[in-house]
Batch of 2 targets.
Target 1
Amino acid sequence: MTTKTKQGNKMKSAEKNDRFVWTRKHLLGLEDLSKQELVHILDTAEGFKDISERAIKKAPALRGKVVVNLFFEDSTRTRNSFRLAASRLSADVLEFTAKGSSVSKGETLRDTARNLEAMGIDIVVIRHSAGGAPYLLSQCVDCCVVNAGDGFHEHPTQGLLDIFTMREARGDLAGMKVAIVGDIAHSRVARSNIWGLHTLGAEVFLVGPPTLMPAGADQLPVTVCYDFDEIIGEMDALNMLRVQFERIGLPTFPSVREYSRLFALNSERMKRAKKDVLVMHPGPINRGLELESEIADGPNSTILRQVTNGLTIRMAVLFLVNQAAAEKRKPEA
Ligand code: CP
């Protein structure tokens, strides 16, 4: 069964300008970004692609700047990707992990950030289990803040790299049908994808068991579907989400086997999909649970391409927020 729940487009102030100028010194989510802003990030990332293909993979855009990776949750892809992106733009990078820091002595997020800021940092990249932590930080520091994933709220650079990968493969997002499949309730990746894809004109389908749909799904600009087989044949991209066992309290489906039977992408289910469907996953993958290994490593998979594109997207984001901060510091003429 499917339920249509479209939300009207909001008026986007930046779209009114003929000559677009990026003005945000923080990237906290994709929900508030206009189409013009999203396209500007994607186009900026496109321009950074060639740096990674050079013999000397460096550009001077952030020379003399300091980026701190403030991670209160584990990460493989996002943390290393931000680190490498900052380093490719010639910034100095400070790595912070809650374990081994004064957070264990009770220091607050605000105090931690303000003390790091006192050392002269320019950009904080933060991952935190609490939704809204990056926003809170943006209210109490002068430097730029970039959200690297906050609770169940948003993971904007993951959303952007997913969208960049789809645009790279298809050219235009408008009219694309994208299914986000699995544990939507606990997924910040799903939320950033929903907002970004909707603003760029794609049609988003949320697929999963009712117990893994978020509260208020009917307020999102999506079509909700509980039967994967009903819609798989129409989709241009399948973004398979990880079942986040560490965030699920009580069991939300009868068994792992039952979940896989209904919602996993396996060879049998792939037969019903379009031949050129994009198979996506933000990682880390529960191989054999939401995605069969043969499909994850197969010809339709964009999973490693997404990781490669993540570096380019993060270079663009670091570059743009720093540029906006520099503009704001300029004395008025
Ligand atoms: N996709 C993603 O956020 O992966 P990490 O948790 O490894 O950063």
Target 2
Amino acid sequence: MAVNLLEFDLEGLAAFCDQLGEKRFRAVQLFKWVHQKGVSNFDDMTDLAKSLRDKLNFAACVQGLKVTTQTISSDGTIKWLFDVGHGNAIETVFIPEDDRGTLCVSSQVGCAVACRFCSTGHQGFSRNLTTAEIVSQLWFAENFLRQRFDRKDRVISNVVMMGMGEPLQNYAALIPALRVMLDDNGYSLSRRRVTVSTSGVVPMMDRLGLDCAVALAVSLHAPNDDLRDNLVPLNRKYPIDEMLSACDRYLSHAPRDFITFEYCMLDGVNDQVSHARELVKLVSSRNKGLNWCKFNLIPFNPFPASGLLRSSASQVQIFSRILIDAGIVTTIRKTRGDDIEAACGQLAGDVRDRTRVGQRIAIQRTVQLRPDTKIGATPGEA
Ligand code: SAH
Ligand code: SF4
């Protein structure tokens, strides 16, 4: 079977080329064709020798994921649903802002951590994505967006591993994918602009610091173990104190001098004044002052099965004021794309629920793409 080159970081591709009897610089050329120019047909890679193209046509392929639907929000957010086989789907979201374009990438089909407030978690765990499936999300989105906006330069400036799944529970596939994102011959994203978000898989936080120290976000959601045990079941294995120690260690490798804590605001559950005060105590007890962390308060995006409600805007303000007054840099995340269920925690890869997709067609520009649709053609306008 042909080997999918999207599976390789540059070292992996060099090893593959070596097996074909080709020098390393050929791997660099090939890597640039695939990731910088978005070319998948070896015969279009004009500076490769005919003999190498023949070998590649025989032994390799560049195979992206099949897009099932594409939905564009009124705020410009784009959500893609990719078919990953056996009735499974994953979601990828592009969030345009004035000064950047962020791609939210999935790492697993479903998630085993099963956080109470997360739609992906409620779906259960199906399987890990391969490196090729993680990279494909960026490969597809970057090429699609360049053509859509008629741009030659890069459109995606930031990647956040905040889609479906717990990236640090798919470590072996994650690391080569991150390396492709960072590689100067790949997407050349800076380590500060690639963020891994984790619910706190402590041993893998340590390994990430050593293997590929990108920006780190940790989903905290509670100021004490009792509450966090209940919201993020992984806390029973890696309680808050251990997780914060791992954050301390990570800081010596991190590209930024802070860790971002994400805190999903749940009405009456974790959003009270007493919780905010407890949080301030918690992070100030780490002997580092308060500038080693930032808080990102995320308004909860409700879904029926959770039985939870979003905190009121005024409660979020009161909560953030307490953190800010204590000297903690705190932002309230603007929800983006919630009209297309592309907001945090709403990603459920709902490939089978055609009724919901059907309803969306009426109000948004959702289109079904045929597997052979050219990514250059703007769906719905073709
Ligand atoms: N598994 C990783 C990354 C994916 S979740 C993690 O948990 O960090 C990405 C972010 O979305 C996390 O901060 C998560 O807590 C948040 N999130 C999950 N469900 C949400 C929901 N329903 N509303 C708002 N944020 C949610
Ligand atoms: Fe998994 Fe993150 Fe959702 Fe928790 S919040 S279930 S870790 S994807």
